[in-house]
Amino acid sequence: MAESTDEGDKSSPPNVSLEKNLRQPNPFIVQPTSDHTHTAIFLHGLGSNGEKFGAELIQSGISSRGATLTATFPGMKFIFPTARKRRSSAFKRATLNQWFDIASLKDPMERNHLQVDGLIESADYIRSIISQEMKAIPSQNILLGGLSQGCAMAFFVLLSIVFSIGGFVGMSGWLPFYDDFDEIVNPLDPQEADSIFSTDKETDNADNDPFLQTIRFVRDLLSLDGDKITTSMRDSTCFQTPVFLGHGGKDEKIDCQLSEDAANLFKSLGMDVSWKCYPELGHWYKIPEEIDDIEEFLQKKAGFCPTDRYA
Fold this sequence. Notes:
This protein has 311 residues and is of the alpha/beta class. Helix content is 33%, strand content 15%. The two termini are 22 Å apart.
């Protein structure tokens, strides 16, 4: 395991403007121990940073076989970005690392308009990292995920890209603007909703198609162009990305129900979602059970085989 300290490795991708580069802390990077075949991008929780979260996950995230993630996937490069410091509405305007502002941890939907600026900036930054990695490996060899607010942020990054990636792993997280998504997927009048799996030409252009509405809602909120997204693009978008979500049943910070709600919503959109609750777990990841589940997900659902070599 090699933790990069070289500035060339740790700098933000060159396709981000200089101004934005200066505002983003350097990510913590763990280089693969063999030929680079895959990349995992994991986002930390509120108040943490890439190095603290990344070093602990790499060192303590041990499976029941006694193996770390780097040992199980030697060709995987791990990138742990750090959110820049922002004033926190939830903590009396204290300055801390957060991907976006949040008014309340008990109710992440409270005053969610405060989240928009951070979501826009952070999503742009994480997408630039994905773009940079795609210069070396296929998008299907990229894993995106995070813990707590990092999971919430990663959800929005996933929903904002117009291609699929290898997999998504979320731990103890929630979906920002869930109520808006739920209204799209489960409208008050069921007769107004066409089947989300329909391929009828009329449905391709229907404004009430949940697939189109979901993509356009996210891209509009993030100030991205969504007008060119059509229903026929479903098979080549983020909706083809398999998702694993794990949450502690005794999470004292983020209610486990929020994670399950997100899982059910994604399933309603036709996504392949694996969700698991760990009854005795608080606000963290379960060792070794959740690490085992993540490894199994990566191998069986995402196709990340430890012996794979990208040629």
